[in-house]
């Protein structure tokens, strides 16, 4: 299955047997991101969290369950 990264527009080939391929076929809201873009975003987010100026908000469901 051919997939295109939403950030860099690189076209990759993934196996049609993978759960990711099924998710992309059956739910059009899900998008594909290549490994390089995913890793780059992960590193940048961790850097922002380390500065202390970036606030990482949890989802409202997690907050409700804490009380």
Fold and architecture overview:
It comes from Psychrobacillus faecigallinarum. This is YlaI family protein. Pfam families: DUF2197. This protein has about 70 residues and is mostly helical. The protein has one domain (about 1-65). About 50% of the residues lie in helices and about 10% in strands. It has helices spanning about 20-25, 35-50, 60-65; strands at about 1-5, 10-15. The protein has a two-stranded antiparallel sheet with strand order 1-2. A hairpin with a 6-residue loop joins β1 and β2.
What attributes does this structure have?
67 residues, mainly alpha, two-stranded antiparallel sheet, 9% strand, DUF2197, YlaI family protein
Task: Characterize this entry briefly.
It holds the Pfam family DUF2197. This protein has three helices and two strands, in the order ββααα.
Q: How large a portion of the residues is in β-strands, by DSSP E?
A: 5-15%
Helix content: 40-55%
Please give the radius of gyration in angstroms.
16 Å
| Tally of individual domains | 1
Mean pLDDT: 84
How would you write the strand order of the largest sheet? Answer: 1-2
Number of strands: 2
Number of helices: 3
Would you identify the regions where 5 or more consecutive residues have pLDDT less than 50?
Answer: none
Biggest pleated-sheet summary = 2 strands, antiparallel
C-alpha end-to-end distance: 45 Å
> In terms of structural class, how would the helical and strand content be classed?
mainly alpha
**What overall geometry do the principal axes of the alpha carbons give?**
extended
Output the helix-strand order. Answer: EEHHH
């Amino acid at each position: 299955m051919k997939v295109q990264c939403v950030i860099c527009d690189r076209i990759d080939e993934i196996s049609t047997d993978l759960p990711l391929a099924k998710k992309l076929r059956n739910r059009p809201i899900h998008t594909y991101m290549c490994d390089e873009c995913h890793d780059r975003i992960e590193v940048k987010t961790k850097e922002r969290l380390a500065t202390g100026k970036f606030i990482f908000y949890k989802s409202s469901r997690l907050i409700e369950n804490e009380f």
